[in-house]
Amino acid sequence: MEQQPLAQRLALQREYMEKTSQLLSRRYEHPPLALVHSFGCQQNQSDGEKLRGMLAAMGYGFTDRPEQADLVLYNTCAVRENAEDRVLGNVGALKPLKKQRPEMLIGLCGCMMQQEQMAERIRKSYPYVDLVFGTHALYQLPELLFRRLSGEKRQFRGGGEGEIIEGLPLCREGRIKGNLPIMYGCDNFCSYCIVPYVRGRERSRRPGDILAEARQLVAEGYKEITLLGQNVNSYGKGLEPPVNFAQLLCQVAQLPGEFVVRFMTSHPKDCTRELIDTIAQCEKICNHIHLPVQSGSDRILKRMNRRYTVEHYLELIAYARQQIPGVTFSSDIIVGFPGETYEDFLGTLELVRRVRYSTLYTFLYSRRSGTPAAQLEDPVPSEEKSRWFQQLLDAESSIRDQLQQAQVGRVERVLAEGPGRTGEGWLCGRNFSNDIVEFPGSPALVGQFLDVRIERAQNWALFGSLV
Ligand code: SAH
Ligand code: SF4
Ligand code: F3S
Fold it and tell me: CA-CA distance, 251 to 453, in Å (whole number)?
């Protein structure tokens, strides 16, 4: 069947939104409650804000307690096996609730559900799940919900193509920090990664739409905007007139207002000197780059299909350090990629010691069926991989300690985000390197940029007081 044009399909969903809203107001005396939980990355969180936006437009209120929810919607992540297990565990825990209250609806969407075999598994083994839809069908929530609420059978919607859907209602999670997707999908096909299969081909939003959303965030009082994409450095492919990520970033940073800009994720193969110069020149862009390296061995990088070398990566880091005073870096690292030897791993350790990341996100390799790496021989036993992993964690924590101790005595600009973990009277926020900073202060200061003198450091945060 040929697909209708996007505008028509969206108009249809708007009709369903209206019909669902009428149906709900007939059925419930008070607004029904929805629980929406996003299990994945920031893109997934950002999708969750659209799901919440559509639900709010249909008349739902929100809760975070499943016992109270009339609809539980889990927005899933497929990046590693433990992410999937966590989702399935949570779905299993809903079974007794559904038994007590059969009218409660359960929906699963997002990356896991874009995989046909997973949708099939839900169909067979989780008969109490009402709605299943993949990433490309996100905007069809109103229709699926309406059909199920009107007594039709369980709704499954998979397949589809990645498109750019503008104009969906949004209900953001926070009031200070806002996510701003600039592109969707990924074309890199790193050999271990499921994302290109569940998110579709890379596509960039138009700069006009992005700038309009950024202006709106600033107007609503947001103080930090994070530009999101799986590989922001390749932003702009296929757009007319041509525009690249450095130019877009600069345009966002030039908007009037008091705010800062972050971005993620940068892929080292597409990170340009122009981008680094832009960060150096624009005051509103944070001096922090998340630049995932994945491995410190050229042999493994090649097998991962990352398309850069350790040497190229270190040159980028050196250039950024030279151009951007005080720049800090964070990275993702995979330990135990199929065929990785202890020697390869030592390369990673060496690289981590040279770069001295302020934050590292470390993962044990997880086999994803359908990816090229899943076919590779993987002879190293998992206990051995875990030992390497621990070695990496130890190195990371000693580097972090040193970096944090070096900040004691300095005055850092901090965006106050909310109550601190230390206790009453404390606030927490983040400095431009994205370190957590705790300090005594009144709740009225939340949402402001403040100067904090760092007095001590403890593994999870820096502590200080207002200047
Ligand atoms: N687009 C981003 C990250 C996407 S996924 C990038 O290219 O960096 C986030 C991180 O999950 C990846 O950086 C990688 O370190 C990790 N990851 C992805 N697939 C994985 C797998 N199969 N096993 C373990 N970690 C994985
Ligand atoms: Fe996955 Fe690589 Fe794309 Fe990142 S760039 S999402 S790791 S395929
Ligand atoms: Fe993100 Fe997980 Fe999907 S990392 S893109 S939610 S597979």
Answer: 32
Q: Do residues 78 and 86 make contact, with C-beta atoms less than 8 angstroms apart?
A: no
Say what the alpha-carbon torsion angle 39, 43, 49, 55 is, to the nearest 10 degrees. -70
Q: What strand order describes the sheet that includes 328-335?
A: 288-290, 328-335, 359-364
**pLDDT tens, 243-256?**
999 999 999 999 99
Report strand pairing: 449-458 vs 411-419: antiparallel
Q: What is the Cα–Cα distance from 14 to 139, expressed in whole angstroms?
A: 10
Which amino acid appears at position 97 of this protein? L
Distance, in Å, from the CA atom of 422 to the CA atom of 428, rounded to the nearest integer, reads 9
- Of the listed ligands, the closest to the CA of 362 is 1
- Its pTM stands at 0.96
Task: Please state whether beta strands 131-133 and 260-264 pair in parallel, antiparallel, or not at all (unpaired).
Answer: unpaired
For ligand 1, is residue 294 a contact (CB within 6 Å)? yes
Instruction: For residues 427 and 348, give the distance between their C-alpha atoms in angstroms, rounded to a whole number.
Output: 36
Q: How far is 48 from 173, CA to CA, in rounded Å?
A: 9
Q: Is the CB of 268 under 6 A from ligand 2?
A: no
**Cα–Cα distances in Å, from 197 out to 78, 112, 214?**
10, 10, 29
CA distances from 88 to 34, 37, 105, 347 (A): 19, 13, 16, 36
193 φ, ψ (degrees, to nearest 5): -105, 135
Distant-in-sequence, close-in-space partners of 61: CB < 8 Å, separation ≥ 6: 31, 32, 33, 34
pLDDT band at 211 (very low <50, low <70, confident <90, very high): very high
- Ligand 1 close to Cβ of residue 363 (< 6 A): yes
Residues contacting ligand 3 via CB (< 6 Å): 40-41, 43-44, 77-79, 111, 194-195, 198-199
pLDDT given for residue 13 in this prediction: 97
Residues 6+ apart with CB under 8 A from 298: 309, 310, 347
**Angle ∠(281,431,285) on CA atoms, nearest 5:** 20
Pocket test for ligand 2, best of 111, 195, 291 (most atoms within 8 A of CB): 195
Sequence letter at residue 105: L
Q: How far apart are CA 257 and CA 218, in angstroms?
A: 7
- How many CB atoms sit inside 10 A of residue 57's CB? 18
Q: What is the pLDDT of residues 251-282, one digit of tens each?
A: 999 999 999 999 999 999 999 999 999 999 99
Six-digit token string for 448: 């402001």
Using CA atoms, how far apart are residues 383 and 394, in angstroms rounded to an integer?
Answer: 17
